[in-house]
């Protein structure tokens, strides 16, 4: 945990958003967060779902989208669609200097931001004193994967992006996808990734998985899918690569 906290302190700013609204659903919701310390340029940005509370009677449909990102702030929208009732969603996020930032200047330490936002009528922000929490989902079965970066690196360059696949009424999963970096890294980077969107049939257990299959200097490959009898119609991921 100390190494993880050291890494997060060196890398940038991060936090969590958690909304709870049972028995009434407060979604969709938009939340704008201002960085405690502005970046020199628009940062690389990572976010993923860390908690879900959904009604079992409808299909699992949940998504978080990055609506705006600047060097000073960002906006996330948490939502569902159609008849799905959502009572709670948690999102974890991290921002760190982009490639353009670090090529201009040596990496500068940014004070990390730790926050949780809860909603039950009014929205109150509470500050956490501990580090990055483990992902947790209120689902029958779930398996997110996070690969953390090397805290020993002093000069850090980063790149981030989104991948998604939707195929209703026919499930296209599993799929294997190779993502090309806009700018190749000098050495193989570390890759962090997580789920940002789900669309799963209500009649089976919720099973979703993203697995890193390989990393090269210019790209990485991921496996996206489910298993057993689960029918998946949509799956989205966010990723961040850092050397």
From TrEMBL:
Transmembrane segments: none annotated. It holds the Pfam family H_lectin. GO terms for molecular function: N-acetylgalactosamine binding; oligosaccharide binding; polysaccharide binding. Gene3D superfamilies: 2.60.40.2080. Residues 31-95, 177-241 form the H-type lectin domain. GO terms for biological process: cell-cell adhesion. GO terms for cellular component: cell surface; phagocytic vesicle; protein complex involved in cell adhesion. This is H-type lectin domain-containing protein. It comes from Magallana gigas (Pacific oyster).
